[in-house]
Amino acid sequence: MASKISPLAPEAYPAMPAIEGVRTGAVEAGIKYKNRKDLAVILFDKPAEVAGVFTRSLCPSAPVDWCRKHLSGGKANAVVINSGNANAFTGKKGSEAVKLTAEAAADAFGCKKSTVFLASTGVIGEPLNTSGFAEKLSEAGSAAAAGGWDDLARAIMTTDTYPKMSTRSFEIEGKTYLINGVAKGSGMIAPDMATMLSYVVTDLPVASEDLQKLLSKHVETTFNAITVDSDTSTSDTLMLFSARNGRKPVSGSALKTFGKVLHEVLHELAILIVRDGEGATKQVEVTVTGAKSAKSARRIAFSIANSPLVKTAIAGEDANWGRIVAAVGKAGEPADRDRMEIQFGDIRVAHKGERDPDYDEAAASAVVKKEFIPIRVDVGVGRGSATVWTCDLTHEYISINADYRS
Amino acid sequence: MASKISPLAPEAYPAMPAIEGVRTGAVEAGIKYKNRKDLAVILFDKPAEVAGVFTRSLCPSAPVDWCRKHLSGGKANAVVINSGNANAFTGKKGSEAVKLTAEAAADAFGCKKSTVFLASTGVIGEPLNTSGFAEKLSEAGSAAAAGGWDDLARAIMTTDTYPKMSTRSFEIEGKTYLINGVAKGSGMIAPDMATMLSYVVTDLPVASEDLQKLLSKHVETTFNAITVDSDTSTSDTLMLFSARNGRKPVSGSALKTFGKVLHEVLHELAILIVRDGEGATKQVEVTVTGAKSAKSARRIAFSIANSPLVKTAIAGEDANWGRIVAAVGKAGEPADRDRMEIQFGDIRVAHKGERDPDYDEAAASAVVKKEFIPIRVDVGVGRGSATVWTCDLTHEYISINADYRS
Q: Which run of H or of E encompasses B74?
């Protein structure tokens, strides 16, 4: 874990309310870190409905393989997450460790192993030692409580400098429901994936197929619209649960209401990850308009958001829009150089393919000195638009990653 | 310009021989830098045959537009290159500046403006002030000399810490010929382009169509196989000239011999750019084998070479092969996770999809402590292979780019 807390950390963490039939908690298993909890559980008193989105890496971790395989059952009794070791690229040992962990959890929590979902995050390539997991899982089961969300959020951290939590309450037909989410992630954050680890739970009764539809839809504009360093992890996992406690799943407009709140929670967690991006000192919002399609706009936006030269300019508080032009150019997507327009906040710096005649460097600089920097680029060929979020690239990113493992 | 010279700089620069009918030189035009030459020319006494490869950026600079337009003529009398201002994203002012420069050069050197080739490198988006260019170009014409290659190589530098030159002599049918090349480039270096700026001249008489064929072929495994920071420039230009001085162009086996030497020169210049990569302390060679095709191997190799997490690990002298696994996974190309093999130098660290049973961290660490680090990855699905080159990602890269413009 990094020692310094991100300057973009929230000033306060939300008080996470209890959700009926759901207990969370964590214990110290000594996997890699000393004197901190590193083995977390989410337990459902009755089988929960479940949906998931996972990394698109072609080298997924063993736990991702396991979750994909068992997701079709649509039911979850327990989730087990460890930090400190990713159990990725660990061959047969990796799938054996996963099986042993699921079996130990099934024993400890009195359920089938196929309803246990797993995740591991940390160093890639080192075999995960699961001896002692049976005992530690029993301990975690005893520690798990309705109010254990903070413990859960902290136990899954790796290079994160703060825990990431979000909660909302919402009303459907006069009844109040809750949705709680936690996430971890700081580096190896890139598109084309679900996210790092994130778990979201609601007490609204929703069938697993509907959960999956909503999750797949809203991940695109939240976790799949952020990037810290363009590196996609082997372990990205985002899961959504409905602790329906035997009640009949809702449908129709209730799902629509739920979808909106779900989007809010996913967005809040995704932005918390960007703001805890390794070494981040600035949050950058890149909006591309006037593209050929939304997909094309998204590619251009990511080309800007992943450009080391754009990100270092932001770190240096330099409104260097020339580097934005270069990033648009390398995206390989249709763009009309001679109609392009670029804004930092409300300050238009480029217009019709050249420096704005009213360009005022001081005004543009004032925007990039702030903590939140909106960049807008119109590429002048169509009506497609997209927004993505990233952070700046600083010395601290190098410090964190040049000696993370050793 | 950076003040520190790259630790990977060559110990000595080659003595560049004179090529008959070719003069090069540079003068101080005060475009951005003080007390250094920033306006360079290459002059051909008789029309030279010419070929070129340019950036694939969709926002090319005005000089790139100009060169593309006039390349079809196949003849060159003069090349004019300025550093300090890229004349990119400068709208109509940009194309006017290009036209004025070409006209001034045509006047100064007594040739048609369509046989004048241009390049500008430096800050993007600032109008290039060409007033005074007519006078400065006359000066440059007077300064140009058969031995002016060193001046040329230095005048085109921007964030480069050393000039890049390469020369070879070769024999064809008992006669000795020469090939001289210069290049600049240090940041904004990425694939899908020609290179930054590079000019290569031979006295072997070769027709422009043959020059173009050979250049397009050999750029793929040289300049297009390097990356510093994955950012493609708006101004990348690589040009090849034959100062044939009226002689009949060669054909057949002579072209084959020339192609080999050309490859050597392009490769040497490309590696010089990687070794002068902004902030570089290590040169990394990434070879991918066992891929579905050469193209697929190349994509995987670039995914590794562009990964900030791989590059920071190398900077930290950490043989963190888990990050290589992640970079292979995110490439989106066929790879068999469970047959993958990874080597640092001669040390096999991963085998059959997991840590090598004989893995010796000390031996792997010894490899990454060196200045030149070969990484080999076999992805276990086919026979395609490719090699690309990059450098590490260090604090110095951030320092250079967080305050380049201001």
A: none
